[in-house]
Amino acid sequence: MPRAKRAADVPTDRLDEMLVRLKLSGIRDQLDNLLDEAARSNLSTRETLMMLCEREIARKDHRRIDMALKLAHFPAVKELAGFDFEAQPSIDPKQIRDLAASRWIANGENVLLLGPPGVGKTHLAIALGREAIMAGYSVQFTTAMALVAGLAKAHAEKRLDEKLLALSKAKLLIVDELGYLPLEPDAAHHFFQLVSRRYETGAMLITSNRSVAEWGTVFADPVVATAILDRLLHHSHVLTIRGDSYRLRAKRRSGLIKAPPAANGAPVGSPPSTKPPAIINRHHEPEGGGRSS
Q1: Higher model confidence: residue 86 or residue 129?
Q2: Burial class (CB in 10 A: 0-12, 13-18, 19+), 289
Q3: Both 59 and 117 in a single domain?
Q4: Average pLDDT over residues 88-99
Q5: What global pTM score does this model have?
Q6: Residues 36 and 126 in one domain
Q7: How far apart are CA 101 and CA 203, in angstroms?
Q8: Torsion of CA 281, 287, 289, 291, to 10 degrees
Q9: Do 94 and 233 fall within a single domain?
């Protein structure tokens, strides 16, 4: 029986050709260094093969993530590690960590991040989008105004269906800053068509400075707003952030703007007044008053 050829006997160009055909560029580009590393570590044939596969997978994951981040069009690099949860106590870190696991994306569910400007909604949206990419999901980021402008342009060019199809491909679509400006009726109808296309098949993450009760004003049509919310809220996670703006807080620290007045009318952080508070007669509502059942 003829003796099998050793690996060193295989022509380099032939080996390169096979690695290229198998799309193992990570192994091909580092083969000599990887084999030297295996020899220094006295790895067995099986262990060497495992190491080669691990390096190839790591290379492919790195390239996939890098490409996915570019295709997502995030406006900035924001990560959960950089979010100041202590500054926004209304946010439950555990709930955010659960969302970062991306199970809601696999299930085609939605996330609504609601709150005033500057409380970190966009930061969380980008960070959760990056976590989704790390987990293997495709992500697309857009602002609400850019989205409706693109839909209006596609409608005018008679290619709205094509645009809606393109916006339905990503497993997660992030729509930032919905509600800062009211939408025209046509824009509201286009947005409804997009939500309907993605319903139960593709996840959406929407940030807004308006509560859902105000979305009738945002979409200039309560009927359309109700139809949109009916689909978005069916499988959803709604997080309402209450707190001070990061940007305004930084300006207050630098002295560029004054702190808001406290309950006694003095700026926050000023010494307490020695003047006794005025007594006001007021009928107290029973406990639980104002809450809807």
Answers
A1: 129
A2: exposed
A3: no
A4: 95
A5: 0.78
A6: no
A7: 14
A8: 150
A9: yes
Taking the alpha carbons at both ends of the chain, their separation in whole angstroms is 86
Helices 45-72, 121-134: inter-axial angle, 10-degree rounding: 150
Structure tokens at 67: 């490409």
Please state the three-class secondary structure of the chain as a single string: CCCCCCHHHCCHHHHHHHHHHCCCHHHHHHHHHHHHHHHHCCCCHHHHHHHHHHHHHHHHHHHHHHHHHHHHCCCCCCCHHHCCHHHCCCCCHHHHHHHHCCHHHHCCCEEEEECCCCCCHHHHHHHHHHHHHHCCCCEEEEEHHHHHHHHHHHHHCCCHHHHHHHHCCCCEEEEEEECCCCCCHHHHHHHHHHHHHHCCCCEEEEEECCCHHHHHHHCCCHHHHHHHHHHHHHCEEEEECCCCCHHHHHHHHHCCCCCCECCCCCECCCCCCCCCCCCCCCCCCCCCCCCCC
Flag whether 155 is in a domain. yes
Tens digit of pLDDT for each residue in 49-68? 999 999 999 999 999 999 99
Residue 172 and residue 123 in one domain: yes
Residue 163 lies in domain:
80-240
Q: Are residues 99 and 235 in the same domain?
A: yes
Do 179 and 210 contact (CB within 8 A), yes or no? yes
Q: Which residue from 120, 15, 136, 29 is spatially nearest to 78, judged by alpha carbons?
A: 120
* Cβ atoms of residues 182 and 218 within 8 Å: yes
Clarify whether residues 19 and 143 are in a common domain. no
